[in-house]
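Exercise 3.2. Students should predict the tertiary structure of the chain below and write it as structure tokens, then compare their answer with the key that follows.

Predict this chain's 3D structure.
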Amino acid sequence: MIPVQPLLLLSHALFSLGVYGILTRRNAVGLLLAVELILNAAALNFVLFGRVFAHVQAQAFALFIIALAACEAVVGLAIVLSLSRYAKTVLADHADALKG
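Answer key:
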């Protein structure tokens, strides 16, 4: 069995990269990728602890997170496409152009 600590460090690194991406990116696509990294880190933690403690519910919840990430990607890219169509930019600072 794979030791727990390296996988926890990998999950921590993914989560940290996601938070860093959210804090530093202005591009809407970059923000979506950062959110995907955070969701993948959470899913990795659920799978890891589900395997260590033999809880099937944790692994089912990880599948739910993966489905949620797919839905987030679809809705987020639709918003990015409408933002690029109306505001002619994909910078998240200009997202208020979609009001009204």
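Discussion points: The helical segments are 4-24, 28-52, 56-87. The mean pLDDT is 89.
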